[in-house]
Design goal:
Blueprint (H helix, E strand, L loop, with lengths): L1 E3 L17 E9 L9 H14 L3 E10 L10 H13 L4 E4 L5 H11 L2 E4 H12 L3 H16 L31 H30 L5 E6 L5 H9 L16 E6 L5 E6 L9 H6 L5 H4 L3 E7 L5 H14 L3 H6 L2 E5 L6 H13 L3 E3 L8 H15 L1 E8 L3 H10 L1 E7 L3 E8 L1 H11 L5
Parallel strand pairs: 2-3, 2-4, 4-5, 6-8, 6-9, 9-10, 10-11
Antiparallel strand pairs: 1-3, 7-8, 12-14, 13-14
Helix pairs in contact: 1-4, 4-5, 5-6, 14-15
């Protein structure tokens, strides 16, 4: 399958023809592809979207069948020569290969096509480098980028001193240099790991502080561009950046929301997942995604209008298992089936029938607000179902602990004697553990 767009006079953002802003996207389709099966058209569309996320002007894009991957170039000689003509005719400055390239393959393709070549990992890292806003996010992306660069011949690492986003895979100062200083990169990685360890400790303290707040944690997860940030804004009446872009959100955001039966919860918006997410990047963002591991309820936001929605669901669940949230997946996540406003009448009817048979499925439109009240009700039901009913005895003189139980739990029964207040109370497992640490031997 081939898809080409007319050649414009100049690239996006006012970039002149021949600059690195004009791009070719090539999606290799292996005879036996690794990972989850996707249509070639969907893979190509996603790759073009990734390139557009960092303002590359994609003037040519196509899928290429690769029956026998070549160690030197991945593609066969005829394909390399044909694409060399495409690059020259369209004055392309960057070729994006939607797959994994070895350092030798990347170097040889750059020599053959006479333009910058980056693979899927490099492209995703470049996007993350531009989008990360918090100091923690920048540290995590930089660590992942350096780990990636250390494994191959790096043209330059002077991009670390630049103020703009991105990580230099598209060019920049010293791009003609072929060798990197591995010692300097190694020193920088060591320094970043120390800084991130400090950040992780700080996040742990913040998490402990939130533990003193009587609200459960609800985490939104989902494939990139599924509409998590739009839903987050709808539920919290916030204005978190939400655009029709891949990876519009990188840094986690938290806000309080009110649930239908009265109590509040903390809602967390997280980075979007994607198929074949670079291993280094998953590892680097593990600290950020610990919010998901600590969540009382995980809501999987899905773009139900996307043709590859089932494959995207599988990719998200795979990453969640890697993060140690497999139990939540096995027990059934709440699935917010988003963007129903983009479905036709028959598709919506079929979806409604599915949701009627499965309480974990909630059709919604974050854009219009349709179904959001049903989603909040589903979250409340999940929290109530997770409560453990326990019998506790608290010293009557310990008014703070008694008040804590009323704030955090659902008091079903109370009986006082001369010394103790005896409670039968429903508590979330995490809150019960907190109370036991707080009250100690007063718990019976």
């Amino acid at each position: 399958m081939t898809r080409k767009r007319p050649v414009a006079a100049g690239g996006s953002n006012g970039q002149a023809a021949g600059s690195s802003g004009r791009a070719l996207v090539v999606c290799p389709v292996l005879r036996e592809g690794a990972g989850r099966e996707r249509t070639a058209a969907a893979r190509l569309s996603e790759a073009v979207g990734l390139a557009g996320a960092i303002h590359l002007d994609v003037v040519a894009a196509e899928t290429v069948r690769v029956d026998q991957p070549r160690p030197a170039t991945l593609f066969g000689r005829g394909t390399v020569e044909r694409l060399q003509s495409v690059v020259a005719e369209n004055e392309i400055g960057v070729a994006v290969v939607d797959g994994t390239l070895s350092p030798i393959q990347q170097r040889n393709l750059e020599r053959g096509w006479k333009c910058k070549v980056i693979d899927r990992t490099g492209l995703i890292l470049e996007i993350f480098g531009e989008r990360a806003r918090t100091s923690e996010g920048r540290l995590q992306v930089e660590l992942a980028a350096l780990s990636y660069q250390k494994s191959r011949l790096v043209r330059s690492w002077t991009h670390l001193e630049r103020q703009r986003g991105g990580f230099g895979f598209l060019g920049g100062p010293g791009e003609s240099q072929i060798e990197s200083d591995r010692r300097q990169i190694g020193d920088r990685i060591t320094k970043l790991k120390r800084e991130l360890a400090a950040v992780t400790r700080t996040r742990g303290l913040h998490r402990q502080a939130r533990g003193r707040v009587p609200y459960p944690l609800v985490a939104l997860v989902g494939y990139t561009n599924a509409g998590k940030s739009t839903l987050f804004n709808r539920l919290t009446e916030s204005r978190v950046f939400a655009e029709d872009l891949l990876f519009a959100t990188l840094d986690p955001t938290m806000r309080a929301i009110k649930l239908p039966n009265g109590p509040h919860a903390i809602l967390s918006d997280t980075v979007g997942f994607i198929s074949n997410l670079p291993t280094d990047l998953v590892a680097a963002f593990r600290a950020t995604l610990e919010e998901v591991r600590a969540a009382d309820v995980v809501v999987h936001v899905r773009d139900i209008s996307h043709p590859d929605t089932e494959s995207q669901k599988g990719d998200v669940e795979e990453v969640l298992r890697d993060l140690g949230v497999g139990a939540a997946v096995d027990n059934g996540l709440i699935e917010a089936l988003n963007k129903i406003d983009l479905l036709g009448g028959n598709e919506r009817a079929v979806l409604a029938n599915r949701a009627a048979r499965n309480p974990n499925l909630v059709p919604i439109s974050a854009a219009t607000g349709e179904g959001v009240d049903l989603l909040l009700a589903a979250i409340s039901r999940r929290l109530e179902a997770a409560r453990q009913v326990v019998d506790l005895a608290v010293d009557l003189a310990d008014g703070a602990s008694i008040a804590w139980l009323y704030r955090h739990g659902q008091v079903l029964e109370r009986r006082d004697d001369s010394e103790f207040a005896h409670f039968r109370v429903g508590l979330l497992p995490a809150d019960l553990a907190k109370f036991e640490r707080r009250a100690g031997p007063q718990v019976h």
